[in-house]
Amino acid sequence: MLYRLDRLGKAVTDFFFPQFCIGCGREGEVICPACIAKLPRLSPPFCFRCGLPQTGGQSCRDCAGLDLAIDGIRSPLIFQKLAREAVHQLKYQNIRVMAAPLAGVLHDYLTENPIDADMFIPVPLHPRRLRERGYNQSLLLAHQLGRLCSISVRSDILKRSVNTPPQARTVSSIERHHNMREAFTSLDGKMKGKRVLLIDDVSTSGATLDACASALKQAGASCV
Predict the structure, then answer these.
(1) pLDDT per residue as tens digits for the range 185-206
(2) Of 85, 94, 109, which is closest to residue 31 (Cα–Cα)?
(3) Model-wide pTM > 0.85
(4) Distances from the Cα of 138 to the Cαs of 59, 65, 215, in angstroms?
(5) Bridge partners, 186 (sequence order)
(6) Domain spanning 20-218: CATH 3.40.50
(7) Whose C-alpha in 4, 23, 42, 207 is 20 to 30 A from the C-alpha of 215?
């Protein structure tokens, strides 16, 4: 019944507010399958810790100089062109339906590159920023991905206790990691042995994800 109501709600919304692909302008979806196929993919070689492209080696210079809690970061897409526009629409323009196709891209990536996880945890927003935006785009992604992967989503474990400045405004990787230090706390101290897959919309230096991983490992998580 709920599924039918969701379909009915979408049909009514599409009738009064038809969707158009942000890539080609075709009516029917916020981003069509043809444009999804053209999104800029991230291919090896990349740093096995932060996931950023590099010319060779196992760990990039920035990660080699940092004591990281995160076990690894992976992304299917490079934050460029249409991928950047899709994330910006989800994050800043209240186009929440964009979470579904982006989660589909994540699901395809995980199908080809499996990562063992007991749960998905979205990176939380600080309460003040959540009130300003009205929603957490990472939680939307996590819910959609959880349905596709049949893995539980826990949004009640991590708390953002420090309202840090936007990471895009900081200069270096070291500065970003310093800003994020102690920014997150775990609300559940019974994470022993749990394998966690964090979900976020964008990773730049990996500082935010690493700070989350630090909090989760302090609570007992075995892998993040």
Answers:
(1) 999 888 999 999 999 999 988 8
(2) 85
(3) yes
(4) 26, 28, 18
(5) 158
(6) yes
(7) 42
